[in-house]
Amino acid sequence: MAVIAEVTVVPLGTGSTSLSRYVAACHRVLQQAEGIRYQLTPMNTIIEGELDKVLEVIRQMHEVPFEEGAQRVSTSIRIDDRRDKTLTMEGKVGAVEAKL
After folding, report:
1. How would DSSP label each residue in the chain?
2. Conformation bin of residue 69: beta by default, left when phi > 0, alpha when psi is -120 to 50
3. Is the terminal CB of the chain with fewer CB neighbours within 10 Å at N or C?
4. Can you give the pLDDT at residue 15?
5. Are 26 and 20 in contact (CB under 8 A)?
6. What is residue 48's predicted lDDT score, i.e. its pLDDT?
7. Taking the model in full, what pTM does it have?
8. Which residues of 83-98 are buried (b: 16+ CB within 10 A; e: fewer)?
9. Domains of the chain
């Protein structure tokens, strides 16, 4: 079964307030990953897939700022792992929209 994870990777001490180049580099990792779906939002990235694959791609994303020269990285992860029925990004949004 799939999980949905919210991830934010923040390089620290880069000398710049702009982070878009780091976000783009992390998303290149996602573009190459197999077996996952993802959605970029203004504040984080949502990833859907099997737990092991999601955790592996998050680990790879965490390494990206180091590869880009950052000396410190803070990564926040929140995982929704529902085992009683299939979980999808669209299903979660649709459940709320149906109640509006």
Report:
1. -EEEEEEEEEEES-S-S--HHHHHHHHHHHHH-SSEEEEE-SS-EEEEEEHHHHHHHHHHHHHHHHHTT-SEEEEEEEEE---SS---HHHHHHHHHHH-
2. left
3. C
4. 86
5. no
6. 97
7. 0.91
8. eeeebebeeeeeeeee
9. 2-99 (3.30.70.930)
For the stretch 16-68, pLDDT in tens is 888 999 999 999 999 999 999 999 999 999 999 999 999 999 999 999 999 99
CA dist., res. 22 & res. 67, Å (int):
10
Taking the C-alpha atoms of residue 8 and residue 85, their distance in angstroms, rounded to an integer, is 26
CA 51-54-59 angle, to 5 degrees, is: 125
pLDDT tens across 1-21, in order? 899 999 999 999 888 888 999
The total number of residues shown for the chain amounts to: 100
